[in-house]
Write a structure and sequence with these properties.
Blueprint lengths: L1 H30 L1 E11 L7 E5 L9 E4 L4 E10 L2 E14 L4 E6 L5 E8 L3 E6 L14 E7 L1
Antiparallel strand pairs: 1-2, 1-3, 1-9, 3-4, 4-5, 5-6, 6-7, 7-8, 8-9
């Protein structure tokens, strides 16, 4: 009986330790690819629902992309300019992702780490909550939060 109980305990341990790896791999697979920013919203910190400001890319900035690969490589290609005269600049770096707390930390070369919480992750949409540099936009003495929405 002890042998069966011990076998059961090891089996349960093996199954639960693999579950997190499977979820992590699945979410990393959904994260990989190129994403375009479609909007950035500043949400009230007081009720976490009131939209205070919305920014949408315009002009050359519409072409800017953020890329993630499953080998923890990240890049941001920004486009700037006027009209059809767009120029690009690519910044490369790395990232870490924890599926347990949905924490995405991006570290571009020659920059500091920037932390985000993944709010939505699907095959077509990625929504990040910016965890750094947030300020009180509406003057109510409560820090407001930026949400960045990407689409494929």
């Amino acid at each position: 009986m002890k042998k069966h109980l011990l076998l059961f305990a090891f089996s349960a341990l093996a199954l639960t330790s693999c579950e997190d790896d499977d979820v992590q791999g699945y979410e990393m697979d959904m994260l990989k690819g190129e994403w375009k920013t479609v909007k950035t919203e500043v949400i009230s910190g007081k009720d976490n629902s009131t939209v205070l400001q919305t920014f949408t890319p315009t002009g050359c900035d519409i072409k800017s992309t953020t890329e993630f690969r499953t080998d923890y490589y990240a890049s941001y290609t920004s486009f700037s300019g006027v009209g059809a005269d767009c120029t690009s600049q690519k910044t490369e770096g790395t990232y870490t992702y924890s599926n347990e707390d949905k924490l995405l930390v991006i570290k571009y070369n020659n920059d500091s780490e920037r932390a985000y919480r993944v709010d939505i992750l699907s095959n077509t949409e990625l929504r990040l909550v910016q965890l750094f540099g947030n300020v009180d936009v509406n003057g109510d003495m409560i820090i407001d939060t930026s949400y960045i929405t990407y689409k494929r």
